[in-house]
Amino acid sequence: MGQGKFIERVLFLLALSAISSLVLITVFIFMEGLPLILQTGLKDFILSSHWAPTKGHFGIAAMIVSSLLVTLGALVIGVPLGLACAIVLAEFSHERVKTILKPTLELLAGIPSVVYGFLGVIWLVPLIRNYLGGPGLSLLAASLILGIMILPTVISISIDALTAVPALYREGSIALGATQWQTVRRVVLPAASSGIITAIILGMGRAVGETMAVIMVAGNALQLPTSILDPVRTLTSNIALELGYASGRHREALFATGIVLFVIIMILNFSATVLTRRR
Amino acid sequence: MRLDPRITQSLMKTLLWSLTGFTLLVLIFIIVDISIKGLPQITPMFLFQDPQDMGRAGGIFSTIVATAYITLLAILLASPLGVGTAIYLTEYTREGLATRIIRFGAECLAGVPSIILGLFGFVLFVMKLKLGWSVLSGGLTLAIMVLPIIIRTSEEAIKAVPQEYRQVCYSLGMSQWQTITRIVLPSALPGITTGIMLSVGRSLGETAVLLFTAGAALRAPVSLFDSGRTMAVHFYILAREGLSMPNAYGTAAILMVSILLINLTAYTLMQRLMKRYS
After folding, report:
1. What is the dihedral of CA B118, B120, B126, B127, to 10 degrees?
2. How far apart are CA A83 and CA A80, in angstroms?
3. Which residue among B5, B16, B124 sits closest to A179, beta carbon to beta carbon?
4. Domain boundaries, chain B
5. Quick check: A22 contacting B, CB < 8 Å?
6. Interchain CB contacts (distance < 8 Å): A and B
7. What value of ipTM does the predicted structure carry?
8. How far apart, in whole angstroms, are the C-alpha atoms of residue A222 and residue A58?
9. What is the pLDDT tens value at each position of chain A, 279 positions in all?
10. Lowest CB count within 10 Å: A232, A266, B60, B237, which one?
């Protein structure tokens, strides 16, 4: 075997590192959590909301609902804000403004999630408690914080989608007498729609998977929320709060919670990849 | 009633710009609040003294050591894997099933939330391989977390190196490997550095992964098998248990300022590389 061939083999092995890590993660999470799901029954596990792991009750319905609601809330906040920033950057600002504004907004991605959670506790939670009522630590607080946290994902992928629309489309529309905004709304946004949907899906993935900020502001109460001011416990917070001391079947149940989370995330990732490829 | 399109346009522009302005304000608020309350806490004593009384007093020296140790280990492990993957993807194969699987793996890995990585690191490294809560378990898990970042940025950087560079090398009789190591990699170095810097930034701020793999021991780790509490984990514990607000703000300020500086430098490096070759 020549030197070139040998190097190629080595590089190929290195290139398998990401996919094999992914496989390892999947195998280990399922190995630890699946037995419990099978014993409890998938239906009972995800449809019951009776979670008393030390007494053998493993139902995570309330957490699934909470995770979904928190994510929905994050999208309600994050998508309009993120899309607005993306449209302004891609369509309505001069090159010079863009070169400053874009890296500045990307700084949001660098702020650690614990810092978001901390500021949420210090500023947002008291505001909600004093002006809207309830304990402050709530579904609403988590949604607002997550809405900000998904912005970098939504903004950067939407900008890519918008800038990928050929300039000819815009020129054609303007030449027909449309205003810049009509062009954006009727030509550019529809042409970029699959990319924007990808951005929203990946933003959802970020929101469902976020842990530390949510633990700090969501209140973590085990219940089905009846109002946006109720405290909630998400799938991620449940794992992080209890893994430290859980053992035996309880620990298995946390890995089982991880499986549900993992499956949700993988479905989101997969749809994003499929959408991107179709483009 | 239909509005004049020009009026709709100026209304929409105002709305979109205000939303953008609001987003900027949020960012500025975060940076200013943490800086004003945190930066005054940062004194030589704060940086070079170990935490005392669970972090209520003293500094954060041992957590800086643990952060540096774990981050360095993660980068040392992930860089060769990530850069190797990027070289393979760009220089050694045509687009095909193999590259699609490799890319899909990297993309999915990038989307795996840190709590899942924490669970994985906990069961494989801490429990099964019996490495315990340690710098090693933490570093290994973080390496997996940053791998996709290094792959993506290195690939982008290597692709940006013009094809003519390679052709000139081949016409001079250099082998493919010589071309890669002497010409392609040095030209792509700023971009590869960007990936590594972004990974450092990501590692500095990570909490969920490390809480369950590296533990939260307050003593500075010496061996790879010692547990170590990073700055981010320390900050989380300080804030959550309300141990000391000044120390929490101080730690947050150091974290935030260093991550933002690292990210800005990384961004500038990549822009310069892209401009040079485009």
Report:
1. 140
2. 5
3. B5
4. 5-41, 44-277
5. yes
6. 240
7. 0.93
8. 12
9. 578 889 999 999 999 999 999 999 999 999 999 999 999 999 999 998 899 988 889 999 999 999 999 999 999 999 999 999 999 999 999 989 998 999 999 999 999 999 999 999 999 999 999 999 889 999 999 999 999 999 999 999 999 999 999 999 999 999 999 999 999 999 999 999 999 999 999 999 999 999 999 999 999 999 899 999 999 999 999 999 999 888 899 999 999 999 999 999 999 988 988 888 765
10. A266
Establish if A253 touches chain B: CB-CB under 8 angstroms: no
Min Cα–Cα distance to chain B from A81, Å: 6
* Residues of A whose CB is below 8 A from B263: 106-107, 109-110
Range of the domain at A191: 3-278
Cα torsion B253, B259, B264, B269: sign = positive
Pull the structure tokens for residue B46: 């704060």
Instruction: Give the gap in angstroms from C-alpha B16 to the nearest C-alpha of chain A.
Output: 5
Residue of A nearest to B78 (CA): A17
User: Are B119 and A239 a contacting pair at CB < 8 A?
Assistant: yes
The Cα B212–Cα B120 span in angstroms is 9
CATH number of the domain at A116, please.
1.10.3720.10
* A123-142 residues touching B, CB cutoff 8 A: 123
Count up the domains in chain A and report the number. 1
CATH number, span B44-277? 1.10.3720.10
Residues of chain B contacting residue A10, judged by C-beta atoms under 8 Å apart: 84
Residues B64-110: tens digit of each pLDDT: 999 999 999 999 999 999 999 999 999 888 888 888 899 989 999 99
Residue recorded with tokens 């590594």: B196
Distance from CA of A133 to the nearest CA of B (A): 22
Separation of CA B77 from chain center: 14
Q: Which two tokens stand for residue A17?
A: 């590192």
